[in-house]
Amino acid sequence: MTGQTAQENTAKPAVRTRRRGAALEAAILSATWDVLVEDGYEHLTMDAVAARAGTSKPVLYRRWSSRAELLLAAVLDKFPTPAIPDQDHGDLRADLIALLQPLADRFAAVPPESVGQLNAAMANDAELTQLIYTRVGQVDLRSPLERILQRATLRGDYGGAPVTARVVALPLALLRAESLRGLPVPGEAIVRIVEDILLPLFNGLSSPANTRHTAP
Question: Which of 73, 152, 169, 174 fits a 20 to 30 Å CA distance from 106?
């Protein structure tokens, strides 16, 4: 109709089609992300997502119990867990930088305006905050980090001390803290994290004087 504006056309809910399985889920997750970015978390309701995706609210609730669970699924779908490299770069510093780079790239893939919306959402939803930190952060760094340290031990760069769960979680936490500013994590920041924090930490752990038992 010629009298309608472009804004009115884009505001109309999606037409419902007979989609099932992966196609329906993809449409729902895409709609969830669009509502978050365009309207904010306060407007991210099951009704709004269902209307945008061209489906019904009961369909959403059959898959996700809350809007926090739904948004988590959308985040994981849009920014999947990166592959962690396992390559010997010749020294501990280079191996740690290579370990952090794909994780930094994942954070960099989130547009700055989306980071702001996610931060605002987490500030107002404790369930979402818990889900984001525990499940978006579920990157298995223990195995690749242990292999890096094993190689460093063989080269004489590390004393062979085992790492605790807190140490394993530290690299991802440092990158997350950098990304909260809504800016891509530059290569220089990765180098600083490695040189200023991780290498001194591992040097301390491998020191003969560090014989105190630490809980995992």
Answer: 152
| Domain co-membership, 30 together with 113 | no
What is the mean pLDDT of each successive set of 10 residues along the chain, which is 216 residues long? 45 54 93 92 94 95 94 88 83 94 80 78 88 74 91 90 89 81 76 94 77 45
pLDDT of residue 141: 85
- 155 domain residue, yes or no: yes
Does 12 fall in a domain?
A: no
Answer yes or no: do 42 and 124 share one domain.
no
What does the H/E/C string look like for the chain? CCCCCHHHHHHCCCCCCCCCHHHHHHHHHHHHHHHHHHHCHHHCCHHHHHHHHCCCHHHHHHHCCCHHHHHHHHHHHHCCCCCCCCCCCCCHHHHHHHHHHHHHHHHHCCCHHHHHHHHHHHHCCHHHHHHHHHHHCCCCCHHHHHHHHHHHHHHCCCCCCCCCHHHHHHHHHHHHHHHCCCCCCCHHHHHHHHHHHHHHHHHHHCCCCCCCCCCC
